[in-house]
Amino acid sequence: MFNCKKCDNPGNIILRKKDLYCTECFKTNINHKFRACIGKNKILAKNENVLICLSGGQCSTVLLDLIKNGISLDNHKKLWITPVFFHLMGMRKESDDELIANALIKQCNHYDFNLYIGHISEYLLKNNNVQEINTLPQENNTLINKFNDLLSSMSVSSRNDFLSKVHRDMYVHFAKLLQCKYIFSGETLGTLASNLLTNLTIGRGSQVQYDVGFCDNRNEVRILRPMKDISQEEIDQYIQINQLSPASCISNNQENCLQTIIKNFVTDLQENYQATISTVCKTADKIGVGMKQCKKCKVCESDIGENSNKLSALEATNYSSSVSVGQQQLTSDSENFAHAMFPYINQSLCYTCSKMFSEMDDSNDVNLKQILLNK
Amino acid sequence: MPISCRTGCGRNAVLKRPKTGDALCKECFYWAFEAEIHYTITKGELFNRGDSVAIAASGGKDSTVLAHVLKTLNQRHDYGLNLMLLSIDEGITGYRDDSLETVKQNRDDYEMPLKILSYKDLYGWTMDEIVAQIGRKNNCTFCGVFRRQALDRGAALLNVKCIATGHNADDIAETVLMNVLRGDIARLKRCTAISTGSEGTIPRVKPLKYTYEKEIVMYAHYKKLVYFSTECVFAPNAYRGHARALLKDMEKIRPSCIMDIIYSGETMAVKEEVTLPTQGICVRCKFVSSQEVCKACVLLEGLNKGLPRLGVGKSSKAKKMLAEYNAKQEQEKGSLEQAIIDLDDSSNLIDDINQSNKVTKAKSCRSGSCKSNNKVSNGSTVNNDKCSSKECCTGKCKSNQGNDIDQGNSKINSLLEEYGINDAQKDIPNGNGHGSNVSKSNGEIVENSDEDGEVLFNDQDEENSCAGACGKMGSLQIGF
């Protein structure tokens, strides 16, 4: 059996270690997965402005190509969106950062697209200026330093988590500035499986639907993940077949943090159990929002629970920390103590963001946390 | 330079709490450890005054510590509970036989009555015999499914209000991860509940739900509690091992992740449109099940028919297997019929089946009134396997499973009587020197306890590995 599963022509692409496809069927299939994901969710109206988030990595390269193919069609299958391309800088070393941004501009221009670029440090001081297209933003060094100080006071795991929330927030911010009601982001199957486990591990279990599902509707600007059914394996093949060149090579981030451990774990398990990633993602599809809608977390915009008297891991953690310092009973003292562990919990912050806050050190600039809370 | 206890009691700290990182002296650690469990019990409203409570005792560290702490707290805070121990003997040579000795020691130490039920009596099979059939993989499925039901049976016999199990925080976090990896949404939903049980069933509670495994090990160690700490001889192949390895790695980076995972599990919800299995009662054994016939009955039937894989894996495969089995039966029956036209053949048939399947274990109806319950398997689905044999059975045998189990229950009355044992001192980690090590370096004890945690891989863990590794059906709501 050396023939394509679909059309019986000679196949040359093996997926999942056993399924053979020919190039044509493979391409059709990837395109179909992408379009079906958008189509069946029936969220987009015709000719919506959609902010397309590009990181420069493999997935974003494929996303760009798929969109180009979609909107350049001239039949009933045409993708009816008006894409606005956007890239967020400030995630890497300064020199790399510029290289990637420039490469991305080139990549977009190659497709006859324009690229808007923002800088992540603007999170602290949102202004309403949009950079000119295809140019790097002017760097505000004080702001960048402030932001980096804030980051470096956190543990690596918390920092990564915080950065993902900042990303989300900045995408929404720029989408609003650029009159987009929708955002496409390029997470693929494997990424989402890791994200689900990460979410669970850091206490964001009730937010899985937003962070891993197709549509994140915490804000009026909705974040969609049209690549969610495409696997890393397929991305690799697609790039090879179409001879695409990603703007940045995969940053092989091997920091010692929860996210890395989980990612490696999922990849390893997938090697032996080919169904791992898709099972995890199927599970994610069934998890809904656990909290009643009342207040929203100021950092991640998720619903936050009410202060209840019921026993949960939160109460148990608080109790642990107070008996560990010799408090006999839960008194007002220990409540203060708990407050130090979980600042603003269930008031303005969710469990995980609150924990993150307790790690942040803003002693250099007392206002930083306040800025975040007042957003 | 000795570090003083964080509580300000004036003593020197001997350990750093794995859970909070605070350095505590022995006495303050005991106090905090017990206070937390007391808090969990009272805040979670686990028990009512006057209740009889069965502690599911394996002889491992969790159940030993649970028994010890419950006894202590019951006296200290006057819960007014009537505590007893309940053990299940799976029949695993080199593992359970030894650990049961430890349980007997506990019984004497804590002055609690002890009841032991064995798989052999309940189901007619020991785990050793089951493993001989199914092999080294998937055997945890049998063990877990059977134990869940066995505990229920034991609790019913003891007439208790609830069963307290030794599941600790690590176990629960692990189960959350595993249920995600396995895509088991129904278990994911309920595995973090502190008390499980629906109407008509005996609830199970987990007083150690928020207690870290490492702290349990340390508590047992400093208190010099006697416990059994060998890993189940059959456990290493369990899928749960993956989830455990992940959790251990993550705990090294962020110890609080165990509590965070539990918090995640507690706060997440299943989408409304997702259909979850509904809980009912097994038509055969009348114990809780989400299917018409519970997993225990399916597994047992598989064993008795020489199709040990019947209850493992997809139900479609099970149907196929049964169909093939029945076809074969028909064939054999056909040839027999040709050979013996005058058929008073039930016993012949059994012999024939036993030979053809090479199953020495295939049981005949224990009541003796129905010698040919193996013939029964003509039904085309699992559910159908009631003793359809009007020809052979006068109705005394409703179904072979049910009968076996009823028989089992009566057999339990012939409980093994056990008395004093001396040998249970094994595997207690050598305590001398720990204290001094620790006061020198705070990190050290964590290392030590970590090792302990791995060496003392105990039965409770194994219990979980089973609970998770088993298939979808089973007595869902009881276990994880």
From TrEMBL, chain A:
Belongs to the CTU2/NCS2 family. This is Cytoplasmic tRNA 2-thiolation protein 2. HAMAP family: CTU2. It comes from Loxostege sticticalis. It is found in: Cytoplasm. Keywords: Cytoplasm, tRNA processing. It holds the Pfam family CTU2. PANTHER family: CYTOPLASMIC TRNA 2-THIOLATION PROTEIN 2. Pathway: tRNA modification; 5-methoxycarbonylmethyl-2-thiouridine-tRNA biosynthesis. Plays a central role in 2-thiolation of mcm(5)S(2)U at tRNA wobble positions of tRNA(Lys), tRNA(Glu) and tRNA(Gln). May act by forming a heterodimer with NCS6/CTU1 that ligates sulfur from thiocarboxylated URM1 onto the uridine of tRNAs at wobble position.
From TrEMBL, chain B:
Residues 425-445 are annotated as: Disordered. Residues 53-229 form the tRNA(Ile)-lysidine/2-thiocytidine synthase N-terminal domain. Pathway: tRNA modification; 5-methoxycarbonylmethyl-2-thiouridine-tRNA biosynthesis. The keyword tRNA-binding applies. Keywords: Cytoplasm, RNA-binding, Transferase, tRNA processing, tRNA-binding. It is found in: Cytoplasm. It is an enzyme of class 2 (transferase). Gene3D superfamilies: HUPs. Coiled coil: none annotated. Residues 281-310 form the Cytoplasmic tRNA 2-thiolation protein 1 C-terminal domain. Pfam families: ATP_bind_3, zn-ribbon_14. Its EC number is 2.7.7.-. Its main location: cytoplasm. Transmembrane segments: none annotated. It comes from the Eukaryota. HAMAP family: CTU1. Belongs to the TtcA family. CTU1/NCS6/ATPBD3 subfamily. Plays a central role in 2-thiolation of mcm(5)S(2)U at tRNA wobble positions of tRNA(Lys), tRNA(Glu) and tRNA(Gln). Directly binds tRNAs and probably acts by catalyzing adenylation of tRNAs, an intermediate required for 2-thiolation. It is unclear whether it acts as a sulfurtransferase that transfers sulfur from thiocarboxylated URM1 onto the uridine of tRNAs at wobble position. PANTHER family: ATPASES OF THE PP SUPERFAMILY-RELATED, CYTOPLASMIC TRNA 2-THIOLATION PROTEIN 1. This is Cytoplasmic tRNA 2-thiolation protein 1. The lineage of its organism: Eukaryota, Metazoa, Ecdysozoa, Arthropoda, Hexapoda.
